[in-house]
UniProtKB/TrEMBL annotation:
Keyword Membrane among UniProt keywords: yes
Source species of the chain: Faecalibacterium prausnitzii
GO terms for cellular component: membrane
Protein's UniProt name: RIP metalloprotease RseP
Cofactor(s) in the UniProt record: Zn(2+)
Length: 372
């Protein structure tokens, strides 16, 4: 039963993230007058397809991806769709002839540079929209009020109160990083060393810098040391406007986590052995589903925002890399030669594929170790 729940939950999460991403490319391409040959959810053999206004809509067997095949786009899916479209067929008559797909729009390479940039960025944008909508639902469904960043009370004798923090302070930043939601404070404090941090607060209408605020610690039965916050914060009334603001700030919070994690990985603060691949993600989805629908939706929000950010990285195999090529074309008036784009994209795909294999290997090792 747990396997079935994990499978269905993973299908839901991956399907939602992929479908909304590809819909972004599809919708903006249509709005910009670009011809869309196929909009597919899933990969592999088609289970169902239908042609409407010159676009084939497909549902395919393997729920591990999806794509939008644009006319004139240099991608295997688009070229395959164009090849199938251009394959000569016997002439049809009567009702069958009336059902022949009509061609709508222009090839992608004939669209203006700014239109192509919008098409490339639209997928990631829709991932952020999905994350925002999911977070609105989650925040609205919770019984507890929204957590603010304004300190309500300092615990008696707490070290943080002795070293700078006061009741009524509104936390603006920790260690120079702006706090959008209360969880930003927790995340930055977890990353601190020596259980101390620099705070920027709003006190009596003025911005005050509090260097080297220190926190109490306690040791558990296993000998591990933990930080004690030593303060509580106010709650915020759950009005529609406050829910929307909290959801928007939470998108920024999740984005900050993802960006910071990538930066830590590059700087060596985090080990590459901590990377998770598809196996690890599916395992996490299964665990979240076992806890309840709210945990599953929260993980969906994190994953879709993660996908949006990663796709905007200036990496040749990703949408962000394509946007960089288009920026160069827009500035210079000359497109980056297709041979160069193709070579960089192939190399980038090889690197990404290698990282995915390595991450999957780590996932399997963690599963085996956990089983033992």
């Amino acid at each position: 039963m747990s396997f079935i729940i994990t499978f269905l939950a993973a299908l839901f999460v991956f399907g939602a993230v992929i479908a909304i991403h590809e819909f972004g490319h599809f919708a903006v391409a249509k709005l910009c007058g670009v011809r869309v040959n196929e909009f597919s959810i899933g990969m592999g053999p088609a289970l169902w397809h239908n042609i409407y206004h010159g676009t084939q809509y497909s549902l395919r067997l393997l729920p591990v991806g999806g794509y939008v095949a644009l006319e004139g786009e240099e991608s295997p899916e688009s070229q395959q769709a164009e090849t199938l479209r251009d394959t000569p067929e016997p002439p049809l008559t009567g009702e069958m002839a009336a059902r022949q797909p009509e061609r709508f729009g222009k090839p992608l390479n004939e669209a203006a540079v700014w239109q192509r940039m919008l098409v490339m960025a639209a997928g990631a944008f829709m991932n952020f929209v999905l994350g925002f909508v999911v977070l609105v639902l989650l925040i609205s469904a919770r019984n507890e009020p929204i957590t603010s960043r304004v300190i309500y009370k300092i615990n008696e004798g707490a070290l943080c109160g002795q070293t700078g923090l006061e009741a009524g302070d509104k936390v603006l930043a920790v260690n120079g990083r702006r706090c959008f939601v209360a969880n930003d404070m927790i995340y930055e404090l977890v990353r601190t060393e020596q259980y101390r941090a620099d705070f920027t607060v709003l006190r009596d209408g003025k911005t005050v810098e509090l260097p080297d605020v220190q926190f109490d610690t306690w040791v558990d039965d296993s000998g591990e040391t933990h930080m004690s916050l030593g303060f509580t914060v106010y709650g915020i009334q759950k009005t529609p406007l406050n829910v929307l603001k909290e959801a928007g700030n939470s998108v920024l919070y999740y984005g900050r986590i993802i960006y910071t994690s990538l930066a830590d990985l590059v700087r060596g603060r985090e080990s590459i052995n901590d990377l998770s691949g598809p196996v690890g993600i599916v395992t996490a989805i299964g665990q979240a589903a076992s806890y309840g629908w709210q945990d599953l939706l929260e993980l969906l929000a994190l994953i879709t925002i993660n996908v949006g950010i990663l796709n905007l990285l200036p990496f040749p195999a990703l949408d962000g890399g394509k946007i960089v090529f288009l920026l160069i074309e827009g500035i210079t008036g000359y497109a980056v030669p297709e041979k160069i784009q193709g070579s960089l994209t192939v190399a980038a795909f090889a690197l990404l594929f290698g990282l995915m294999i390595f991450a999957t290997y780590n996932d399997i090792l963690r599963l085996i170790t956990g089983a033992i």
